[in-house]
Amino acid sequence: xxxxxxxxxxxxxxxxxxxxxxxxxxxxxxxxxxxxxxxxxxxxxxxxxxxxxxxxxxxxxxxxxxxxxxxxxxxxxxxxxxxxxxxxxxxxxxxxxxxxxxxxxxxxxxxxxxxxxx
Length: 118
Prior knowledge:
It is a single chain. This protein is an all-beta fold. Helix content is 0%, strand content 53%. The strands form 2 sheets. Strands 2, 4, 5, 6, 9, 10 and 11 form a 7-stranded mixed β-sheet that branches. Strand 9 (91-98) and strand 10 (107-108) form a beta hairpin. The model has no long low-confidence stretch (mean pLDDT 94).
């Protein structure tokens, strides 16, 4: 099983950038598909971006062109580069792993808060 720890969240003004990291330990990171979810108060958790172990990527329409997901298998780390941030990007961001992008959620991190001020 994979253990996940997110970092990099914070408070940023609209139009700014943040880079989230998710450090993985335990099972072999490179064999898992990975993703970033977010959940805003009163809203359901949504998949923001995902990357397969073959480096195929998926992005939600709301973040396409602004967010970039990447992974460094040598460092067992998942990243989410977020640019042109909007107030509606404010949420708790979680990383997750699983056997496929369609079935992430075997393991979850504790989350990192992103707040975008207008």
